[in-house]
Records
---
Amino acid sequence: MTEELKAYELARKQREISVAEFFEKNRHLLGFDNKRKALLTAVKEAVDNSLDACEEAKILPEVIVELVQMGEERFRVIVEDNGPGIVKAQIPKVFGKLLYGSKFHHLQQKRGQQGIGISAAVLYAQLTTGKPARVTSKIGPGEPAQYMEISIDIQGNKPDTANEKVVEWKKERGTKIEMEVEASYQKGLQSVDEYIKETAIINPHVTIIYTNPKAEQSIYSRSTDQLPAEPKEIKPHPYGVEIGILMRLLDSTQSRSLQSFLTSEFSRVGDGTAKEICQNAGLLPNMKPGEITRQQAEKLMEGIEKTKIISPPTDCLSPIGESLIERGMKSVINAEFYCSTSRPTSVYRGNPFVIECGVAFGGEIPADGAVTILRFANRVPLLYQQGACAMTESITKTGWKAYGLSQSQNAIPVGPAVILVHMASVWVPFTSEAKEALAHYPEIIKEIKLALQECGRKLGMYINRKTRVTRQLERANLFERYIPELADSLAGITDADREDLAKKLAAMLHKPEIKAQLAHEENKEYDEKKKLKLKRDEDAEE
Ligand SMILES: Nc1ncnc2c1ncn2[C@@H]1O[C@H](COP(=O)(O)OP(=O)(O)O)[C@@H](O)[C@H]1O
Ligand SMILES: [Mg+2]
């Protein structure tokens, strides 16, 4: 009797939880777990969207980011782009509804993927300051600029808008978002400053104008006018599909037979392969997809596993490429040597991916302590959870001693170097929704290690050459000190002229040639950049 009553009592308490309510209580899942990180995440979500939208519209991105301190722990975040803009009717949903976006249902290399980025930032602003987000957007030169203020109805997970109006905006097109958030600003490795700098390194086609809360402005001008190749959208590969997704696809497909379902919903499945899958699964190719039971779906999974299917298409990704990686590093890091590697496409769980690496060495990079690791996924810097990331694991499991850096076993190497790793994929396997670290798939770790080894070998060769030439120079310098004495004694035992002897002996050392070679090894570009910088500093002083 009492048990029944309890169930009724529970029933009265049971109700739906909106996704907005869930994230209101679990903001750490989305990268808003502390005040410093909250500032970074808010900026990052807006900038990532700006860059995605510009690239999709084939516009060279120019993004203006401004942080204004409003109170001790209160900041206004302003991000403005020159992208395609957002249609008026869509603005409220984009910013005021969680899990709403254009990318989730498409397998394509993008910065955003879940549709929970910018709306989460708006939710965080609302929770901490009570202020709505202010959005202005314009979709073309002849079009009006639309302004509105957006907040989120948390129980309904739907937008509330206010103050909708058309405003004057000189821009041809673009989107501007302003949010007021409770946060803290601090410089350093996990700062907004660092995120902006790394974004400039990994996106050499982007111009970013950034003003930090101290009113210091940095302008990162693009170093190439070449937009990244457009990443193509692909269908899932059978090897990557899970049973639940397979059943949903079977349920929702337009195809009338299992055979045509397989060929139309997946990549790399032609008629022959589809027949083979059916055969290996013990299912008839003309079965109706909607009538397939759970058990049959499991058999289908087994059939897929048993069938040899060619790897997914690899032209769907848009890696950065070796020369642009180096250019990106050169524009921001002052080193004496740079190298890079872009691996061929590989596959994990049916998802194609590309690993790229870069190394910068020497110059102005501090020599004490561990190397700096720069991690990127689909051109987005990853600043948190370095220790939990597959990229870091791959670096520590690579033997850097052979390449001229010091390293204790399974540790991050030590020396004046920056190591950059980038993963481009149609679906990046993050360890959480906050998108901070890569999951440890063996296929991915293997590829990263191969890329690191390629870069490592180039670095090792450079360090060897440099050490050899430096030693030559040291020997020449040492010998040079004895020339006067040697010339004296030689002049004493022969009739030769002492001055003449000294000159000839000096010539034998080939010092100018060695010096020239050293300069050559140490990367002329670096020297030239140093000269340019000196000149600029002098000009500034005048
Ligand atoms: N600055 C922008 N310009 C154009 N479209 C945008 C912009 N910001 C967001 N969007 C659109 O809003 C959607 C939702 O953004 P978001 O919540 O960050 O999710 P995601 O980026 O994961 O798709 C995007 O998919 C995109 O279509
Ligand atoms: Mg996004």
Note: The domain at 19-220 is CATH 3.30.565.10 (Heat Shock Protein 90).
---
Amino acid sequence: MSDTRALIVGLPNPVLLVGAQGRIQGLNGPAKRLIGTDATGWHYITALRQPALLDAVEETLKDGGHRHASYLGNDGARDTTWNVSVRGVALSDGLTVVLSFQDMTAVEEAGEMRRDFVANVSHELRTPLTSLMGFIETLRGPAKNDTAAQDRFLGIMEQEAGRMYSLVEALLQLSRVEGQERIRPTTKVGLQTLVLEVLNTLQSTADAKGLRFDTQMPDDTVEVLGDRDQLWQVISNLVENALKYGATSGDITIRLSSPDYEPTLLQSGVRLCVIDRGEGIPAHHITRLTERFYRVDSHRGREVGGTGLGLAIVKHIINRHRGRLRIASTMGQGAEFTVILPIGAEGNSE
Ligand SMILES: Nc1ncnc2c1ncn2[C@@H]1O[C@H](COP(=O)(O)OP(=O)(O)O)[C@@H](O)[C@H]1O
Ligand SMILES: [Mg+2]
């Protein structure tokens, strides 16, 4: 490689040089990793093997021009997508075609996530919407003069509309929380009163199911820097989940710890645990629970009015508070959701 060509060694992205005879004159480390071998001296057709890129190189060898092609790789863990600039450069000893690779994997993934999200939202809205349309048709036609049926159908329609409403509310909340994630809340929130207030609003649901709240909290006031409404959301989401998916009998324990040094936060923090004695959550689901729309049992989730967005919102709120969420479960014994929150602003400059 001439000195000029040797410069590619200093470039961070994969770069590969093809000489006028079609032989590879040189490639840098990232290019060797992408192609899987040091292909110096090989014919480019043997090394690159993807038709779109081969065409681009062939044309450029003829006219010394500039074009783009895509290239698919694999980094051992996943498929990667590359945009390759193929450009003819006249050097003192002849034409060299410079192939410069740009990693588009993250962009592709973001696009895919967006498409998945839109598909999910549409799917979730379509189910209640289809049902509403069906009932409207029935009310106009067969049930036109049947007041008893009308009443029953309107009840169902109200429920379906309510489901759509909670979904839209949850989506709006999710986008709000995501937008605020970098801004740390600064007001002091007393956790004991908050917990008691939330439990108060859920008491009737618990009573209806024959479940009891077992609250274990320190006597001294425990305060964190937080957003009161959002922490309310966190606690109520976790307790609601315990009521919905957890225990069918027994207690739901809500335990607040006194401030203590938290190794995971590298500073003082408090723990709020919500523990139920339900069937538990299989281990392979646990890491995915905070994904949007993720439900362990989607049919059952929808039946009990779940959107699958609750824990995604919880996770974002906890992130905003610079805290952590831990989920543990033993099958047959129940699930334990622990929120670890820092109590002060120390060590969190951003
Ligand atoms: N305490 C729990 N016990 C068992 N499964 C749970 C518990 N909490 C949450 N889950 C599961 O996690 C899923 C996601 O919860 P969440 O994001 O709050 O959505 P939603 O409550 O709207 O369905 C639920 O659908 C349920 O399958
Ligand atoms: Mg929920």
Note: The chain has a mean pLDDT of 92.
